[in-house]
Write a structure and sequence with these properties.
Strand order of the largest sheet: 7-8-9-10-11-12-13-14
Number of domains: 2
Number of helices: 19
Shape: globular
Distance between the termini: 38 Å
CATH topology of the largest domain: TIM Barrel
CATH architecture of the largest domain: Alpha-Beta Barrel
Largest sheet: 8 strands, parallel, barrel
Number of strands: 15
């Protein structure tokens, strides 16, 4: 889509908002309060690459690097003030854009190219509104940009919606960051209807009429959030395995027992194969055994993540049965099972999770791209949702609201988020009530990307008692990453 066409489409969507100057004189635009009505002035992007300390294997694929997308957006308020929002997010193409017909570099390059298109969409939009409203109106353009980029590159597999959300997420986050800075408060305290311009019915349907997104977040962040340490599919459990893998002797832990002592862990995320019951059961029991030997007093909690590799629900049921046979205590420690089968929930035959959810809660992750998929997952027996900063601030808060209404519990999962991306992810975990915990594995796999942040926000970047200390986010403007 051309620059002129994008402007025309965005103007059409903005017609209901009215004239910005007139709204400014009234002190409130139709799209929200004049204090949170942002117009984009400029967008700047950049990429940073990091190599992993050790490979991270999930979904049957080892990953040894990450590319971060940095986004800076200058916005203008009705009073003429210019406020800049910043954000960063890993592109995570192996997770967001799995394609057997495309190599790693091809999917990464496609997402990087899409970032340029989305930057143009955001930069060219003349509308002034709250970030939540901007996301609502621009998301269709982001998806159209992904389709256009897929066609331009002649990709055999189109850029999926999940990958589009990942690429768009730092743009959305930067706008929310600017909004919070404009008010001198956390972005999580800027989503009341009088600031947004709409109640939740606009974004989630008529059943949410009269409801406020502000009611979905705490008045202040939780003091602490439990940290889930990730045990990847190839991570060493013993010193012998660490030596065989060539894990560096760089002062950081090399085995699971050492990580438990180093971070005071009592929550573990276990990556499984979903293709070998023997391996999955043995791996789970081995992690449990090491955890209890290292910290016998620990109230251990696990989440087990199949990354959609299980062929069907029968595999999950047999896995849970065999774990229980090996250790009933281990089964009881499994807090939830994450995304066991394919992300396309409408695939035939459908993978109904009701029987598995009677044994342990089952969480939707890769499948969760909108309200429709959340409701479908609920109908199929899923009982929880994984919120991820990599899907966007707007998306995460709206899905948290929908999950609350439909009685689903929430957790916050990672995409190997370092630096500002981790601050954003920690913010979601701290401000959304009822979160079971947060996965944060950049400290394991790309610790060098976190080092400059350790003194700035030690409560988030230095874990000593198994929790992130997120009280430090209170009073920090925007999404909390700014000094």
């Amino acid at each position: 889509m051309s620059r002129t066409s994008r402007r025309a489409l965005c103007r059409g969507a903005a017609a209901a908002v009215g004239m910005w100057a007139a709204s400014s004189r009234r002190g409130c635009a139709a799209g929200g309060s004049s204090l949170t009505t942002l117009r984009v002035k400029d967008v700047r992007t950049g990429f940073r690459d990091h190599r992993y300390r050790t490979p991270y294997k999930f979904g049957g694929v080892p990953v040894d690097r990450v590319t971060l997308l940095d986004v800076t957006i200058d916005t203008e308020l009705p009073d003429g003030r210019v406020v800049t929002g910043v954000a960063a997010m890993p592109l995570g193409n192996v997770w967001a854009f799995p394609a057997r017909d495309l190599p790693y570099q091809a999917t990464l390059d496609a997402m990087k190219s899409l970032a340029g298109r989305i930057a143009g969409v955001v930069r060219d939009c003349p509308e002034a509104a709250h970030p939540l409203e901007l996301w609502h109106r621009l998301e269709p353009e982001f998806l159209a940009a992904a389709a256009a980029e897929s066609a331009r590159l002649a990709l055999p597999v189109a850029i999926p919606k999940l990958a589009t959300l990942v690429v768009a997420s730092p743009f959305d986050a930067a706008l929310h960051d600017a909004c919070g800075k404009a008010l001198g408060r956390s972005s999580f305290l800027t989503v009341a209807p009088e600031l947004v311009g709409h109640d939740l019915s606009r974004y989630l349907g008529a059943e949410f009429a009269g409801e406020s997104l502000q009611d979905v977040v705490r008045p202040r962040p939780a003091d602490t959030v439990p940290l889930f340490h990730s045990v990847g599919g190839s991570d060493p459990l013993s010193a012998a395995e660490a030596d065989a893998m060539g894990v560096p002797r760089d002062g950081l832990p090399r085995t699971l027992a050492e990580w438990i002592a180093f971070n005071g862990l009592w929550n573990i995320k276990i990556k499984l194969q979903g293709e070998s019951l023997d391996w999955d059961v043995d791996r789970t029991l081995a992690v449990d055994r090491i955890a209890r030997e290292t910290r016998p007093d620990g109230g251990w909690r696990y989440c087990v993540d199949f990354n959609e590799r299980c062929p069907n629900v029968d595999y999950v049921l047999e896995y849970l049965r065999r774990v229980k046979a090996g250790s009933a205590r281990c089964l009881e420690s499994i807090l939830y099972v994450e995304q066991p089968t394919v992300r396309d929930l409408a695939t035939v035959p459908r993978n109904d999770m009701h029987l598995a959810a009677k044994l342990r809660p089952v969480v939707i992750d890769e499948s969760l791209t909108d309200l429709e998929t959340l409701l479908l997952a609920r109908d199929l027996g899923y009982t929880g949702v994984a919120l991820k900063a990599c899907k966007g601030q707007s998306h995460s808060l709206l899905m948290a609201a929908a999950a609350r209404r439909h009685g689903m519990f929430v957790c916050v999962q990672d995409l190997t988020c370092p630096g500002a991306a981790l601050v954003h992810s920690a913010g979601i975990a701290a401000w959304v009530p009822g979160v079971a915990g947060i996965e944060a594995n950049a400290r394991q796999y790309v610790p060098e990307a976190n080092r400059e942040w350790e003194d700035r926000l030690p409560g988030i970047f230095r874990v000593t008692d198994g929790s992130m200390h997120t009280a430090c986010l209170a009073g920090r403007p925007g999404l909390g990453a700014a000094d």
